[in-house]
Amino acid sequence: MRSALLVLLLGAVACAPSNVDALLSANADGDATPTATAPTPAPTRSGQEWGARGIGDPDFPLDGNGGYDVSRYLLKMGYNPATKTLTGNVSIEAKATQSLRRFNLDLKGFDVGKVSVAGKPATFTRSGDELSVTPAAPLAKGGSFTVTVTYEGVPQPVKDSSNLGTYGFIPTADGAYVVCQPNGAKTWFPSNDHPADKARFDFELTVPEGLTALANGELTKKPVTSGGRTTFTWSERHPMVTYLATMTLGKFELREGRTAKGVPNLAAVDPKYRSTLDNLHTVTGEITDYWSTVFGPYPFSSTGGVVDDFAAGYALENQTKPMYGGFKPDESIIAHELAHQWYGDSLSIRRWEDLWLNEGFATYAEWLWSEHKGGASAQSLFDDYYAKPAGNPMWAYPPGDAKPNDLFNDSVYTRGAMTLHALRTAVGDTSFFALLKKWAQDHKYGHVTTPQFVALAEKTSGKQLDQLFDAWLFKKGKPAL
Ligand SMILES: [Zn+2]
């Protein structure tokens, strides 16, 4: 993510968990490479075998759920912009990580019609943003099951917060802009809404004829129109976290093609932003290919970008299709959101406190892009920020421990990027750039934590780096050079 304030004032970008060793790796869908990671085992309530209401992130205690690991979401959705009504028929394939008599999904609002588990009607209750499901028969630990939920209503985006702004399923004049970091997936589909549980996604999105519904991944067949409505079928076959899923829809102008290296590339803009369509498509292709030389092979099956007519105040790195909310993206923000495809999307954080692993990397990518294009070097950008006086708020906020009430603090971005530059200076360019590639390759489609990054940096460089990381990531005050 990158914020619009920065975009508008500086021509600059924004986006958005830490350490549970008990996470089990499980094959997501039988595909050879993609893997999903199981959530934290839930405590059993006095023998009642209830899945926990949260996945175990102390900063966001009700986000996600315990007791199961999702492998696939099938989202069959319809949306009518005239009534702002969303109808959902969602099937979730999951594996029980404990025996379960009851488990939760995250869902905000809506009238839930029917819930079934393994094809049999289940009972359910609502409380806050929790949907508690009691299957007709208990689920055995290790067993796979499918839960299906039908529901309808007017989506209510999250209008938070000092720190997070408006996010989730956001109605627009002609459709909806759907950007969900950190926990807005629950505003449009029932889910295990926390990045610690990745899954593949299939979408069948039905909207009024003449509108386009965009989702992650690729179209798997031609859109089908019947009775004045068109259904778009998309599939993202690589594991994805819930906050990156989208069904942004409305009037869009499209440009399709491939990057020079052959990656399918789809740009889509609201007609109001027609003049930026070609530039978005060209620059996205160029930067996707360039990052593949710096960070290693592009991790997904397509790239692209979407500009919608909604002043969200930020851009988000939605997997395969970053979303730019109500502005013409410049090269710097496109470089930021595409760098997230490696760091943030393919590699996902397990706890929000580790957000610098996403934002520090994507911000540093802006500096690398500037350097590549003959603009300011990463060193000179580092020097400019380092010149900020000791009283600057950035020095009081250690970026290695992002705070839930101030998640997207500038320090997580800028001081996070400075941490990487300090590392580069300490280990040298050869070791640093080898580390960036190895980090992306070793954890492709998986989860990462800060201690894992520190350990890999020490291993690849052969240097003791704990003092450097401690000063830059975890201590208040301006680090010494
Ligand atoms: Zn970002």
Write the layout of secondary structure elements.
Layout: E1 2-3, H1 4-10, E2 25-27, E3 35-37, E4 68-80, E5 85-96, E6 103-106, E7 111-117, E8 120-121, E9 123-127, E10 130-134, E11 144-153, E12 158-159, E13 166-171, E14 176-179, E15 199-208, E16 212-213, E17 218-219, E18 224-226, E19 229-240, E20 249-250, E21 253-258, E22 264-269, H2 277-294, E23 303-308, E24 314-316, E25 323-325, H3 331-339, E26 348-349, H4 356-372, H5 378-386, H6 393-396, H7 410-427, H8 429-442, E27 447-448, H9 450-461, H10 466-474
Parallel strand pairs: 4-15, 22-23, 23-25, 26-27
Antiparallel strand pairs: 1-24, 2-3, 4-5, 5-11, 6-10, 7-8, 7-11, 9-10, 12-13, 13-14, 15-19, 16-20, 17-19, 18-19, 21-22, 24-25
Helix pairs in contact: 2-3, 3-4, 4-7, 5-7, 7-8, 7-10, 8-9
